[in-house]
Amino acid sequence: MSADQSFNPFEMARSQFDKIADLLDLEEGARQFLRTPRREYHFTIPVKMDDGGVRVFQGYRVQHNDARGPGKGGIRFHPQETIDTVRALSMWMTWKTAVVNIPLGGSKGGVICDPHDLSPREQEAICRGFVRQLARDIGPLIDVPAPDVMTNSQHMLWMLDEFEALHGGRYPGLITGKPVGLGGSLGRTEATGYGVVYTIREALKVLGLDPKKTSASVQGFGNVAQFAIDLYQQLGGRVVCVSSWDQSEQTSYTFRRVDGVDLEALRGVTDRFGGIDKKRAKDLGYDVLPGDAWIEQDVDILLPAALENQLNSKTVGKISKQVKIVAEGANGPTTPEADAVLHERGVFNIPDFLANAGGVTCSYFEQVQSNMNYFWEMDEVLSKLDVKMTGAFHDVATLAQRKKLYMRDAAYVIAIDRVASACHDRGWV
Ligand code: NAD
Q: What are phi and psi of 375, to 5 degrees?
């Protein structure tokens, strides 16, 4: 699902895999096995629409690999969803769960639809129809879905309810992203942003930098960005810039306050989609700059937390010499061309599937709590999250140092090696 029709994410995911398979000297059988999803489900979902007609929606679930545990991955609702996007995302989920060493595999799902044009009843029918097609192929011990682009906790509850109706029992471990109080975990909202900052904190230690003497510039002001800013400021860091998408003008803006953004005040002028009100931000003393100004600030840390393809061959030259760390909160914010430049310049990279793995780690905690029907307090969730993210970061950083690898490559080596070993030890390849 990309605006650029020539971009095929599955080809990109495969070429990333091939590079590391060469580095690991992976056997041919294991390569072939891991380049291709294990199972794919393609199905239609007929829905009786509110106007009396019937519309048929296309659904997909791709289970890339489950050698290390049940599949895990979100379900997207999007008008431009493609099977190759779902395949790529399922493969990336396999590497993400492996790099943080949680006992899960990688899956992803999608329905070609635009929820903006669908009533709640029609959306409910799609959710229930999706589960009816997969009732025997997903489950707490098989494959565990979650929300993703344009799906939320309500969609997850409808899906859970349909599954429980079909199976005749309560299976809260089927799905994550449920509302707190109905099987959801405390800390899920904070998890991705906080997880990014746990890895930044550790990277600063590796580089011998005091967080209190560092500054950062952030792209986006949504869920990931806001909680990352919250924790980074608690560590004493100064956030100079954030940026956001202006829906009415169809463009983005950067909001700069050199003394540091005031998170609460800025939240007060931001809508629920993370869009900042330009006029009210100006009144709060922010400079309003063009959308990509966040990239060219003299800061120590760049934190892209909005979209893919932001640090690319056109923008990488604008990055200040002062930048020491790029922490990828967003998925795929750096293109291979920009990555090569940053590598050459010695910028410390915290790759997306490590940096933003706090979300799936907390989803795993949700599944664990759901399965035992016993829920942890917030402190317990966050301290377990910190342990997982910090451990994963140091596994990668230690290997990168020992083998003189770029952090992204070291993360891939660890993830692919773990999955290939599990497949080998099970006797599959
Ligand atoms: P969100 O929708 O809450 O916020 C997105 C933010 O980006 C908003 O502030 C929006 O205004 C801004 N934005 C959109 N287009 C922009 C543009 N062109 N320029 C500048 N800002 C722009 O999304 P989120 O949940 O914070 O996710 C952000 C990124 O993190 C995505 O790449 C997502 O895939 C990734 N991610 C999120 C999670 C999670 O748990 N939320 C987990 C893993 C990865």
A: -115, 135
Listed in order, the ranges of the chain carrying CATH 3.40.50.720 are 189-355
Nearest atom, ligand 1, residue 270 CA: 9
Taking the C-alpha atoms of residue 105 and residue 95, their distance in angstroms, rounded to an integer, is 8
Q: Is domain 37-171 in CATH 3.40.50.10860, yes or no?
A: yes
Helix (H) or strand (E) holding 219: strand 215-219
CB of 331 sitting under 6 A from ligand 1: yes
Q: Whose CA is nearest to atom 36 of ligand 1?
A: 330
Calpha distance 224→96 (Å, rounded): 17
pLDDT value for 273:
85
Please identify every stretch of the chain with a pLDDT value under 70, giving residue numbers as ranges: 1-6
Residue 183 one-letter amino acid: G
**Residue of 62, 116, 102, 275 lying closest to 191 (CA atoms):** 102
Q: What spacing in Å lies between the alpha carbon of 305 and ligand 1's midpoint?
A: 5
Q: Whose CA is nearest to atom 21 of ligand 1?
A: 244
Please give the distance, rounded to the nearest whole angstrom, from the Cα atom of residue 49 to the centre of ligand 1.
31
Residue intervals of the chain classified under CATH 3.40.50.10860 are 37-171
- The pLDDT score that the predictor gives to residue 336 is 87
Which residues does the annotation mark as catalytic? Answer: 108
Whole-angstrom CA distances from 307 to 184, 221, 334, 383 are 26, 11, 10, 28
Pick the CATH number of 189-355 from 3.40.50.300, 3.20.20.330, 3.40.50.720, 3.30.70.640: 3.40.50.720
Q: Among 330, 326, 355, 352, which Cα is nearest to 198's?
A: 355
Q: What is the pTM of this model?
A: 0.94
* Bridge partner list, 76: 110
Tens of pLDDT along 95-112?
999 999 999 999 999 999
From 189, 194, 245, 302, mutation site for ligand 1 pocket: most ligand atoms within 8 A of C-beta: 245
Q: What is the pLDDT of residue 2?
A: 43
The pLDDT value recorded for residue 167 is: 98
